[in-house]
Write a structure and sequence with these properties.
With 124 residues, this protein is of the alpha+beta class. Helices cover 38% and strands 20% of the residues. It folds into 2 domains: 7-59; 67-112. Strands 2-1-3 form a 3-stranded antiparallel sheet. A two-stranded antiparallel sheet has the order 4-5. Residues 116-124 have low confidence and may be disordered.
Length: 124
């Protein structure tokens, strides 16, 4: 079974998604591998390996999808959203499928961030 994008990294409840395994691997540092969980959009666990300082994320052909795990992570992430982002939390509460939650998370991630980094480079 082939891993299905987007691909997620779970860092103790903080989720990020990536459109390819290569981009996900480029985002991760070797030192963090033991603390991170990797999943595809169907909840299938992914495997991480280090080649020097390079991180390789790939599928495990024997891995069984656990959609409930990914759904739990996504719902917990949406439940923690503050202030103006609460509209995403409300939409997530109304969602009744993993596919909808994944799409909603992708939409949320495309929103411009108001963080310090984005202000410092002039992003709005």
């Amino acid at each position: 079974m082939r891993a299905v994008p987007p691909f997620f990294v779970n860092d103790n409840g903080d989720l990020s998604s990536f459109e390819s395994l290569e981009r996900l691997g480029a985002f991760v540092e070797v030192y963090d591998l033991g603390a991170l969980e990797f999943l595809d959009s169907q909840g299938r666990p992914l495997v991480s390996d280090a080649e020097g300082y390079r991180v390789i994320i790939h599928e495990d052909p024997d891995a069984v999808p656990d959609p409930d795990r990914l759904e739990q992570l996504l719902r917990a992430c949406f439940n923690r959203l503050p202030g103006k982002a609460r509209s995403y939390s409300e939409r997530a509460e109304r969602s009744d499928s993993l596919i909808e939650l994944v799409q909603l998370f992708e939409e949320f991630q495309r929103q411009p961030s108001k963080g310090v980094w984005n202000r410092s480079i002039g992003r709005r």
